[in-house]
Model the fold of this input.
Amino acid sequence: MVVDANFPTAAEALTALREGHVSSREVVQACLDRIREHDDNVEAWAFLDPELALGQADRADEFRARGRPLGPLHGLPVGVKDILDTADMPTENGTVLHRGRTPAEDAAVVERLRTAGAVILGKTVSTELAVYSPGKTKNPHDPARTPGGSSSGSAAAVASFMVPLAVGTQTNGSVIRPAAFCGVFGFKPSHGLISRHRILKQSPPLDTVGVMGRTLEDTALLADALIGYDSRDPHSRPRAHPQIGRILAEEPPVEPKLVFIRTPVWDQAEESTKDALRELCEHIGDISIMELPPVFDGALEDHRRIMEADLAVSFAKEYRDGKDQLSNVLREMIERGRQVLAMDYNSALARIADYRAEIDEITHEFDAILTPAVAGEAPVGLDATGSPAFCTIWTLAGVPALTMPVLQGPNGMPLGVQMVSAKGDDARLFRNARWLLGTLEEE
Done:
C-alpha cells in the first residue's frame, strides 16, 4: 500500500499499524520519501541511514507477524536529537570536536524507545554542544528564519512531516523555543522525570529531556513511553508514573482556573505577541492576570550563573583541547563560568527551592499558568536561535511546561503559547491544555 506521510498523526499511524492496514516498513519509507523531497531546504537531520531505519522496521513487522506482545510505539518512527547516545549511529553533539564519535551503548531514552518498539529513524540536528551556536537547520515555514535551538532538528523534522515524533532536550529553552518557532507541540517535563543517562551533560540541575509532536495526544504518547525511574540518573526518583495519556483523555472535574503571568521579561515580547496574548486572554474570559513576586527578579541571573559554571565543568576537555574550534559565544560562556564563585553558585542552587515553592503557591490557587513561549515569531537570520528568556524561570524551577501552536504572528509564522504547572503535575497540565484547545476550537 502507498502511505502518505502527511496523513497520520502518530496515534493514527499506530492504529493503522496495529490493525494491519499498514506495515512499519511502509510508514518508515513514507518518512524517508518525505525527507528526500524536503530536507534539502530544511536540513533537519544530522545522521540518516535509510537501510538501517528500514531494517528496524522490518524487524518490527516480523515481530508483529509472530503475534508477540507489542510496545506502545511499535513500528513507529521517531527522531532523536544528536546529543543522545545511540550504539548503532554516530552521536556528534553538534560539534566538530566530536565528529565521528560512535558510542558503545544507547542512552536510557533510546533504550526505552527500542523497548517500546519504536524505529529510531535518525539523529536530528543539535546546535553546538546543545548551547547557542546554530546548526544547519532552517525553519520549515520560512528557510530565512531560525528554527530555534538547541533541539532545532527535532522541531523542524516534526513540523515538516518528516517524522511524527521527536526527542529533544532543554537546559534553558531548547524544547519550548524551537517547538514554538516551528509550530508544533513541545513538552518539557518536570526535572528528573525522564532519564538523562548517556545524554550530553551541560548542567545537571537544569538538563531535561523533552518531546515534540504535531498533536497534544501524540506528544503525550511519546512522553508516557519515556517517563520512568532510572538509578543511573542521580536526579531520577522512584515515583508513580503520571499516566499522561490517561489523564489527558479525562474531562476536568471542574472548569480549570487559569492565570496569565507576563514574567519579568515581558518587555522583551514583541508588540504583536502582546496583542495576540491579550486577545487570547479575552477569548478565555475568566482568567486572572498577575505578576510574579519580587523573589523572581534575580531568577534569570541565577540560571545564567548555574548554567555557565556547569558548562565550564562539563566542557572542560573541549575547552582545553579545542578552544579555537568552539564558537565565540560558547567559549565566552565557559570563560565566564570559570569565574563563578562557589558561594554564588551554591546560593543560586539553593534559591531553586524558593522559586519552586512560589510556583506551588500560585498553582494551589490556579490550575495552570499561561505565559509567552517566545518573544515573537522566529527571527529572520540563521546566525542565532532566538531568545529563550520566556522559558528560563520554568526550567530553573524544574516545573513542567508545554507549548501549543495556537497563535500566528504578523508574518504568518507560528507563535506558541506556553502553559506551566507545579513540579510533578505533568499529567494535569496536559488535561488543562486539552481544555484550553477545546475552547479555541469552539470559535
Q: What stands out?
A: The chain has a mean pLDDT of 96. Residues 128 and 326 are 8 Å apart (CA to CA).
